[in-house]
User: What shape does this take?
Amino acid sequence: MIQHLTIPRGPIDLAADLHLPNSTRSTHEAASLPAVVLSTPGSSVKEQIGANYASRLAARGIAALVFDPAHQGRSGGAPRDLEDPYRRGEDISYAIDTLTTVPGIDPERIGVLGVCAGGGYAVHTARTDHRIKAVGTVVPVDIGTAFRGFQPNGAASALDHLADARIEESRSGEPARVNWLPDTLEEAAAVGLTDIDTIQAITYYRTERGGNAHSTNRRLSRSDSLLLGYDAYHLVDQLMTQPLQVVLAGRTGNTGSYESGMRLWKLAPNPVDLMVVDGAGHYEMYDEPEYVDAAVDRLVDFYSNNL
Assistant: This one.
C-alpha cells in the first residue's frame, strides 16, 4: 500500500510516497511501525530505485518513505535540476519531520537507507540528525570524492572554469545544464563510452527498464561547484554513532562505490554488518530482483535488530 504525502520544506513542498506493509490499510490502523527514509541516487526520482527498495521493505513489515529531492521530480524548488548535496541532506531531515507526525509510525524507530550518492547524503545527515537510529547503505558513494576524481586537470582548475561560467550565466540570465548521462546508447558510443557501468546506467535510466518522465537526466551546472567541495564522510568517525549496514556490489567498476563503501566501513564508529553481493554490478543493485532481494533480506535483519 502506498500513501502519497506532502513534506513541508520551508517555502516549498516535497512529493513523497509512504510504502506501508500490505496488512496495513492505513497508518491510523497500524501498530507502532518502524520506518526507514530512503535517500536516492543523484538524478533519481521516487518511482525508481527508491520504490524498488521501499516496496520490498514494506512487504517485510517496515514502513518506507521515499521522496523526490527539492528542485527535482514532482517536488517544488527553483531553479530546477539543482543537485545541492547540502540541501539533499536537509531533505532527509524534513522527511523525518513529517514521518514523526504520521499516526502509526514510531518516531523512536526511524532509520535511513541511502543508495549510491544517496548513501553519502544519508550518512552525512545521520552524523548530526540523531533521530536516525540506524543507517543502511547500498553501493554508497561520496559524490564529492567521485566528482573530484572525474576532473582531468584537478578540482581547483574545474572550479576556476565553473566560476567563469557562473559569471557568464549571470550576464545572460540563462542557467546552464549538463547531462548526468548520455541520453542514448548511440550517444555514448559516439563519444567512446563503452564501459559496462556506463552502459548499464544508460539502460536503467534512459530506457523503459527504469526510466521515468520526471527524471530529466539534467543537472544545473552550478551544482558542480557544490559537489566538488563536498565530503559526505566528514566527521563520520566522531559523530555518526548509529549502527551501520553497508551493502556493496561484488563486481567493482568505475563508480567507485566499492571503494567508497569500504572507506565508510572503516571510518564508522559502529559498523554492524558488511555484505558484498557476488556477481552484482553497481547499477544491477538498482533493480535486478536477485540482487535487490538479497540486499533487502540483509537490510531487514539489520533494521529489525537496530530499530
Q: What stands out?
A: The mean pLDDT is 96.
